[in-house]
Amino acid sequence: MPMTLCRNQGISYYRFTPWLPYDRIEHGFFTRTGGVSPGPFDSLNVSRGVGDDPRNVTENRGIVLRCMRGAKLVLIDQVHGIRAVVYSNRHPFQPPPAEGFEDTADAMVTDIPGILLTLQVADCQPVFLVDPVRNAVGAVHSGWRGSTANIVGRTVQVMADAFGCRPEDMLAGIGPSLGPCCAEFVNYRSEIPETFWKYRVGDHFDFWAATRDQLCTAGLAPGNILSSGLCTRCGVDSFFSYRAQKTTGRLAAVIGLKKPSQ
After folding, report:
1. In which region does residue 93 sit, left (phi positive, over 0), alpha (psi from -120 to 50) or beta (all else)?
2. Strands, DSSP E only, in the chain?
3. Is residue 77 part of a domain?
C-alpha cells in the first residue's frame, strides 16, 4: 500500500508515501478519530450537512487545519455534479472564498499557496491532482455519478486550461473510498451506464479502476497514478461510511501548496 499513516496529537491521517519528498505539497486523508463530535458522527466530522452540532464541526475543522499547517480550509457544497472551480489570483479566476462561504461544485483547483482544498467524503472517491512543475493542485469529489460523468478527466482539463498544466507532468492519487469489494449496485442496469459495465463483477463495480482509466485517457502516465486501496466500508472503525451506517459524518481529504516559508 503506497501510504504512510501519520499521527499528530492524537489525530490520524494517511499520506501518499511517494509524494512525501515533494516539499511544496501538503496533503492528508483523515480518519474519523480524534475529533469532538459524539455518535453517530464520532468524532472528526467536518460536514455541517449531516446533522452534527455546527460548533463541533467548527472545532473539528480547526483540528484539521492545525494538523495541515495551512492558512485556511476551503470547502465546497458538493452536489455530485461535474463543476470544477478555479481558485487563483490570476484574471479571470477568483481568490478563495471568505470563511463560511462555499461554492457549489465537486472539484477545486488552485495555484495559491497556503489554502487547503478540503473534500468531505464518506465512501465517494477523493481524488487529488498535483502538478509539481506548474505548482498547482486539485481535489475532486467523485461519487458514482461523478465517475460516470468523468469528473476527474474534466478536472485535469481545467488545470491545463487554467495553469498550463501538462497531463504528462501530473500526479494523481485516489484516497480511501468504497472499494470493489463493497460497491454493490443491485440496480446497476438502470443506474450505471453500459459503458461502465466492463468494471462490473457480479453486482459490484470497481470505480478505482474506472478512475485510473479516466486519468490515463486524460493523459496521465500510469506510473503517476496512486490508489490507497483502502475501502471505507470495510474500514468503518477508521472511516466514515454512508453505505455501512447511513447517518454518519464526513471525512476530511485535504491538499494544498505550502507557502515558501513552511
Report:
1. beta
2. 3-8, 11-16, 25-30, 72-77, 84-87, 103-104, 107-110, 115-121, 125-131, 136-142, 171-174, 200-201, 204-205, 225-227, 251-257
3. yes
Residue bearing cell 452536489 = 79
Average pLDDT, the chain: 95
Number of structural domains found in the chain: 1
CATH number, position 251: 3.60.140.10
- Residue 98 above 80 pLDDT? no
Model pTM?
0.96
Does residue 157 sit in helix, strand or coil?
helix
Range of the domain at 10: 3-257
Place of cell 492519487: 173
Give the residue among 36, 33, 35, 29 at the shortest CA–CA distance from 5: 29
CB 85 within 8 A of CB 107: yes
Extract the C-alpha cell encoding 151.
469528473
94 DSSP assignment: B
- Model confidence pLDDT, tens digit, residues 136-162: 999 999 999 999 999 999 999 999 999
